Amino acid sequence: MKIYLIGMPGSGKSTLGRLLAAELSLPFEDLDATIEARERRTIPEIFAEKGEDYFRLLESQCLQEFAASANHFVMSTGGGTPCFYNGMDIINDSGISVFLDVPLTEISARISQEMHRPLLQVEDGDKQEARLQALYDARLECYRRATVIVKNPTPEKVLEALRLRR
User: Fold this and answer.
1) Distance separating alpha carbons of residues 23 and 151, to the nearest angstrom
2) What residue ranges of the chain have pLDDT lower than 70?
3) Which is nearest to 129 in space by CA: 102, 111, 152, 150?
4) Predicted pLDDT at 123
């Protein structure tokens, strides 16, 4: 079984992914961490040095490799992974996608002090909220194509949604 967690930056994909993987006795994969290891630099460094287009291509290549593998896992994807290079089709064709639908106010509170999210880097909090809203609006249609949508996700809610899916 391949389970892909999708959603906005700060929605808890990595945190919930580790918990779900442990609960389901599956390996946990973090797509961003895989990219950073392959490139030997951080996501912000990749964005700064090579740009978003280069990053999205790397991201798609890594996703395709995981999707084509025989491995089972729980994966935390990047926030934009499903929205570029047919990512959502790749995800849904190879496994179960779970959209972690977290209110933007909560996401904003979670990421307000973080400096490692290149698409959300702004000086002013109000501008960050506007950028977050624009990103959410642009990605929501893609996210809604998920196999499972869990509002205000907790590990228990996600596990229950997966059980109902079987």
Assistant:
1) 20
2) 112-126, 128, 166
3) 111
4) 53
Among the listed residues 14, 6, 2, the one whose alpha carbon sits nearest the alpha carbon of residue 150 = 6
Question: Taking a C-beta distance cutoff of 8 angstroms, is the pair 17, 76 a contact?
Answer: yes
Paired tokens of 124: 């002013």
Specify the pLDDT at position 132.
86
Burial of 68 (0-12, 13-18, 19+ CB in 10 A): exposed
**Encoded amino acid at 152, one letter:** N
Residues facing 74 on adjacent strands: 3, 28
- Nearest CA to 25 among 51, 3, 50? 3
pLDDT at residue 90 in the model: 98
Count of Cβ atoms closer than 10 Å to residue 28 Cβ: 17
Q: What is the pTM of this model?
A: 0.90
